[in-house]
Amino acid sequence: MSNFQVAIDGPAGSGKSSISDLVAEKLDFTHIDTGAMYRAVCLEALNRGINLENEAEYTFLKDISVENIKKHTYLNGVDVSKEIRTPKVSANVSTVSKMKSVRDKMVDFQRASASKGLVLMDGRDIGTVVLKDADVKIFLTASVECRALRRYKELIQNGEEASLEEIKKAIAERDYKDSHREISPLKKADDAIEVDTTKMTIEEVCNKIISIISERMNSNGKF
Ligand code: DC
What we know:
Structural class: alpha/beta
Shape: globular
CATH class: Alpha Beta
Bound molecules: 2'-deoxycytidine-5'-monophosphate
Number of helices: 8
Distance between the termini: 11 Å
Order of helices and strands: EHEHEEEHHEHEHHEH
Number of domains: 1
CATH architecture: 3-Layer(aba) Sandwich
């Protein structure tokens, strides 16, 4: 079976996950949300009450199974798609995802699931580390203000309380942590195409990415 890999990276709130979902659905690719996988490990670590800063306490990694299939995330076979989106997980996931043992385990899972078929994987280090030879690499960006406003509207629409200032602060903090960590920091791969979504609608971003992928599929002779 032919293998075609698309890597989409970008900071928190850049729209990666929803855009990846839409593009994958349109082109019939399998979408793998790697952020959801790190969130699942964070949930397990929180449930176990370990000291998140102490890598020696992550012994549970040897028995863990984490999968992201069709918009659902499974932790040891249990669907935790809702539990991984709580503010507590969001606030702690950067600490968990900077651990080498966590990254090594997740990267193994991710590479194994991207080895066959048409795959679109989104995250922070997909183009730089996980799928270095991906056929298409996209780096999505947007200003902090724009990303905070999108998240704020999403929460309000879901009937939740939210403070725009607090969201902006949390996003800026996560940006800093994700791009300054020692292992696999968030950064654009040299051969990635940067798409600044600040002034674009979701539809415009999707159309742009779809045309980049379609062009590459036609030109590389695999399809
Ligand atoms: O995309 P997200 O907000 O759901 O990601 C959650 C966290 O996981 C994010 O703070 C950084 C981390 N992450 C990572 O380190 N590497 C990835 N490939 C994806 C996410």
